[in-house]
């Protein structure tokens, strides 16, 4: 799917499922300032044009401030700050935590690259090497999520 197709599909889902309303540009600025990196284009557009979280696999990804809580976290800034404040965690600040699969496993977006390479974080084999690349970017991740073929990330090596 193209970025435009994903935004259109998520906007349709948002209307049907009563997802949180999109955010304004000021909220995106707040998020980018808090994490210190620009959000990938597709994630930014989804928050601005479709919904403030709740879309994607199962119960959906975390939103920006003002969205609905997802598990223990109110939004992507909330979890980002908690991770960065944890002196035992070495997760780089350019990762944005967007979706919890359960059992401590998360999907993360690398915001250093505008395409948003996706990473997984699985501490079950030790926190030292918990983060690993998934081999797809956020557009591919969302395409798979919207097609119901996105699976929990697994380390291949």
Any chance you could write out the topology, listing elements then pairs?
Elements: H1 3-17, H2 25-35, H3 41-49, H4 76-85, E1 95-102, E2 105-110, E3 117-121, E4 131-137, H5 138-146
Antiparallel strand pairs: 1-2, 2-3, 3-4
What characteristics describe this protein?
157 residues, SMI1/KNR4-like, four-stranded antiparallel beta sheet
Structural account:
This protein has 157 residues and is an alpha+beta fold. It has one domain: SMI1/KNR4-like (3-Layer(aba) Sandwich). It is built from 5 helices and 4 strands; from the N terminus they run H-H-H-H-E-E-E-E-H. It has helices at residues 3-17, 25-35, 41-49, 76-85, 138-146; strands at 95-102, 105-110, 117-121, 131-137. The chain has a 4-stranded antiparallel sheet with strand order 1-2-3-4. The longest helix has 15 residues, at 3-17. The protein is globular, with a radius of gyration of 14 Å.
Provide a short characterization of the protein structure.
Helices cover 34% and strands 17% of the residues. With 157 residues, it is an alpha+beta fold. Helix 1 packs parallel to helix 3 (41-49) and helix 1 (3-17) crosses helix 5.
């Amino acid at each position: 799917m193209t970025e435009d197709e994903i935004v259109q599909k998520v906007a349709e889902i948002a209307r049907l499922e009563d997802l949180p309303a999109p955010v304004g540009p000021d909220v995106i600025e707040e998020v980018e300032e808090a994490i210190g990196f620009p959000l990938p284009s597709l994630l930014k557009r989804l928050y601005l044009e479709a919904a403030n979280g709740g879309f994607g696999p199962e119960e959906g990804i975390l939103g920006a401030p003002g969205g609905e809580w997802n598990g223990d976290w109110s939004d992507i800034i909330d979890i980002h700050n908690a991770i960065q404040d944890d002196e035992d965690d070495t997760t780089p600040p350019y990762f944005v935590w967007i979706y919890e699969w359960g059992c401590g496993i998360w999907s993360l977006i690398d915001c250093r690259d505008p395409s948003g390479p996706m990473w997984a974080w699985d501490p079950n084999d030790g926190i030292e090497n918990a983060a690993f690349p998934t081999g797809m970017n956020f557009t591919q991740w969302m395409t798979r999520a919207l097609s119901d073929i996105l699976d929990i990330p697994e380390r291949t090596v």
